[in-house]
Amino acid sequence: MFTGIIEELGTVSSIKKSSETIVLTIAASAILTDVKLGDSIAVNGVCLTVTSFAANQFTVDVMPETYMSTTLKELNVRSTVNLERAMAAGGRFGGHFVSGHVDGTGEIVYKRPEQNAIYYEIKMPQHLMMYFMMKGSVSIDGTSLTIFGVTEDTITVSLIPHTVAHTVLGAKGKGQHVNVECDMLAKYVGRMMHGVPSETNRKKELTYEFFEQNGF
Prior knowledge:
Riboflavin synthase, mainly beta, 4 helices, riboflavin synthase activity
């Protein structure tokens, strides 16, 4: 589990790609102070497992599902990435609940300054639009952000100067892709409302009639 508060910008120092897998070695410092084998680290919002590490770098494997459904396949040597360690139980919780399980990728359709902020409008896959709402939370490349604009196929978020300077999103522009993780609560509620398979492989629908019949 993560919070969407980026701890450090890392740099890809080595990348080994096959047809649908990647082995990434990433140079870092701050997040390695207490690292152990098997730890989870979010790389551009994708939860990955540390398979080896040294004083100034760590290595992770990217499996086919992650390769196909995230932007990690677009990385190259010297690419900059957002890094966050899994949240500590006793730490401050500054963002929102982020699982590191990316739901899809979006495309930046515009980027413009607005006083002390930078506005980004991001085109989203249609099947994800039901999970976005005004003032709701979203994770973009692992960064916890607040939505303040929603259309039929886009959302708009705003970055303050600190976020622009300390995350990879600040350097991205129109036409580039980002990893998107929808709010966890919205996904669970959406799944419940649209029905889930029962033991008999039928769907149990949650409708207004169901709630009325059960005293809601």
